Amino acid sequence: MQKLGLALSLPTIKRIAFSPPLPQSLIHWFMFQWGIESDENAAGAVISPPHATSGALGLGVGNGTMVQTDKVSKWKDVLNPTTFDATQTTSVDKPEFNTRPGVLPSPPPKPNIFFDGTSYLNMSGDVSIAANQDFTIMMHVEFTNLTARALIGASANNFFRVNAADGFRCKIGGAGNQNFIEASDVITIEKDYFVTLTRQDGAAGRLTCHVHDTEGVYEDKTWGSTSNTDADAFTINNIGAAADDANNFKGVYKNLFVYQGVALNAAERKQLYIYCTSLL
């Protein structure tokens, strides 16, 4: 694994210095406008050499050449840029380097990876969380549809998704659905959210979901039930889908953090909110 400090010291990354909380337990980070590559334009014509955002210089691809609407063929893990990534080789399944469609605020947001409800990315290997093992998965996204849209997954038995405006659903290892539903609060489309799924307490497998938005409506809000439990093994190998091409995400994906063996606390989650928001 490449050291995070080394990855973030590359001269192509013009970002503020940042050390994420508990770096020894952070195993994957797909980062906003970093390590994104395209080998096709919006019309499906081949791009050679491929276009790329920051993070590709020195790794075999041109740097800073991405064009908005390019089809995304690869998103590299900033922690393991030469050994782990999320890719798509089927043209019709590729997301775009883009903002969401429709009326945008002024100034418009920076593009990242837009999933149109038919696209997704395959990770280059399984992310395997062992049974009885704590974890934290933080997903930084902007939704454009809220009906059964998976943010991560591997199969019908391993996924986390927004289920409707009032909440989220996960299934871990096939042991039944766990729902995080609010009675009156709702998620809305076209806003920037951090959604964090956490498991803690070892074999007890206590699950929680936290929602934070950049507009201050929800400040690290505990979303729905705090009594859900599931200590089964959890496998992830897709970004933007449950199984391949199932419950495909619709919206813009900005950051994805996977922590293994640890449940981040409120102060640690806040560090990630602040830094990721600074990138926008």
Please provide a written account of the structure.
This protein has 280 residues and is mainly beta. The chain has a domain at 90-99 and 106-279: Jelly Rolls. It has 2 helices and 18 strands. The chain has helices at 4-7, 266-279; strands spanning 26-30, 36-40, 46-52, 74-76, 85-87, 96-98, 112-116, 121-129, 135-143, 149-155, 158-164, 167-172, 177-181, 192-200, 206-213, 221-222, 234-239, 250-260. The strands form 2 sheets. Strands 3-2-4-5-8-17-10-11-12-13 form a 10-stranded antiparallel sheet, with no helix packed on it. A hairpin with a 5-residue loop joins strand 14 (192-200) and strand 15. It is globular, with a radius of gyration of 18 Å. The model is unreliable at 1-15 (pLDDT under 50).
Name the helicity range.
Answer: under 10%
- Overall 3D shape: globular
- CATH fold-level name of the domain at 90-99 and 106-279: Jelly Rolls
CATH top level assignment of the domain at 90-99 and 106-279: Mainly Beta
Number of helices: 2
Largest sheet geometry: 10 strands, antiparallel
Q: What structural class should be given to the helix and strand makeup?
A: mainly beta
Instruction: List the helices and strands in order.
Output: HEEEEEEEEEEEEEEEEEEH
Measured by DSSP, the beta-strand proportion falls in 35-45%
| CATH architectural category of the domain at 90-99 and 106-279 | Sandwich
**In angstroms, what is the radius of gyration?**
18 Å
Residue-averaged pLDDT, rounded?
92
Distance between the termini: 27 Å
